[in-house]
Design brief:
- By secondary structure, the protein is α+β, with helices and mostly antiparallel strands.
- The protein has a domain of 155 residues.
- The protein is 53% helix and 17% strand.
- The strands form two sheets. A four-stranded antiparallel β-sheet has the order 1-4-2-3, with helices on both faces.
- A hairpin with a 4-residue loop joins strand 6 and strand 7.
- Helix 2 crosses helix 4, helix 3 crosses helix 12 and helix 9 packs across helix 11.
């Protein structure tokens, strides 16, 4: 990514704009090439499975990782592996990703005057105040993305780290009782402003999301695991498809796309919980995407990545907090 470095350092505005556009075009072509590799269900499965493993990576970087090493299981930087006592094998080629660089701005308050300036321009005295948590005269204001630089990561298979350690690095919830997980999920959904209720649905549907009333309805009588999967599927609709509120026509015209996105998100999330998930989720997505153009596929995969990560993170934060509360209550007893 030499262009990225030149674009950052050039003083010529027109040249900078031209170089920035060239970098964007290269990235677009890389993503297009990565997504066009989805020839069958197994390719999609690899990508969806890696959303779990690469939960801290952006959609763009997931595409880049998939393009360079579609069989990756766990990727990290040289520094991360070395801290754990492991190193890349000789002659292994690193996987290139994009690392965003931000310019930090701070707010300086002096009597009635407020000044906004970049962090790197602070004087020694201002920097000292900025680092002092008890001094609010110089504090963080915001950050602005300035450019991307190229970073290198390695997959665990490229190092001397035993692959068996992946489970310890990316632990899953191994709770034989899905009732506890379901209860935590329902509470997570409530925190996002949606209610969950069970009804005797007369049709074959297992559940639906009522955007107008911010309610997720689940069919009574489903097994624990199926009920949980339906809850997650409808939770995906609730978050990812809010624009469908009062827009039934849009849903009917693109039903396959929206249902495929929700089903793929449910697949990723249930697998992240360590629970079995049916492969029809993958077949559904494949049957929709195989004849679509690049833009439609990118939109769906971007939605799947972003909302899978959001739901997993929302649940983990709430679940961890609930476990800590329960542990403290047990200790008090």
């Amino acid at each position: 990514m030499k262009l990225s470095f030149i674009a950052k350092n050039t003083k010529d505005v027109k040249e900078k704009e031209t170089l920035d556009n060239q970098v964007k075009e290269i990235l677009t072509n890389l993503k297009k090439e990565a997504l066009q590799k989805f020839k069958d269900e197994s390719d999609i499965k690899k990508f969806l499975d890696n959303i779990i493993n690469f939960n801290n990576y952006s959609f763009n970087n997931m595409c880049l990782i998939h393009l360079q090493n579609p069989d990756s299981k766990y990727v990290a930087s040289f520094k991360t592996f070395s801290k754990m006592g492991y190193y890349p094998k000789k002659d292994e080629k690193s996987i290139k990703i994009l690392i965003p660089s931000f310019l930090t701005y701070v707010k300086i308050s002096e009597k009635e005057n407020v000044t906004i300036k970049p962090l790197f321009t602070l004087t020694d005295e201002e920097l000292k105040k900025y680092k002092n948590k008890d001094d609010n005269s110089v504090e963080f204001y915001n950050q602005k993305l300035t450019h991307f630089k190229v970073g290198s990561v390695f997959d665990i298979s490229q190092t001397n780290m035993p692959v068996e350690l992946i489970e310890e690095l990316e632990p899953t919830i191994e709770d034989p009782s899905s009732d506890q997980i379901t209860d935590a999920f329902i509470k997570t959904i409530y925190k996002d402003g949606f209610k969950v209720k069970y009804e005797n649905l007369t049709s074959d549907m297992k559940g639906y999301c009522d955007h107008n009333n911010d309610t997720i309805v689940i069919r009574k009588g489903l097994s624990n695991l199926m009920g949980l999967k339906v809850i997650i599927h409808e939770y995906a609709h609730a978050l990812a498809h809010q624009h469908l509120k009062n827009n039934g026509k849009e849903y009917r015209e693109h039903r396959n796309q929206y249902e495929s996105e929700a089903e793929a998100i449910a697949y990723v999330v249930t697998k992240s919980l360590g629970l079995n998930s049916n492969n029809y989720s993958l077949n559904y997505l494949y049957s929709w995407s195989k004849n679509k153009d690049f833009k439609e596929i990118e939109d769906s995969f971007s939605t799947i990545v972003n909302y899978s990560k959001k739901i997993i993170n929302n649940f983990e934060k709430f679940y961890d907090r609930e476990i800590n509360i329960n542990d403290k209550q047990v200790l008090k007893m």
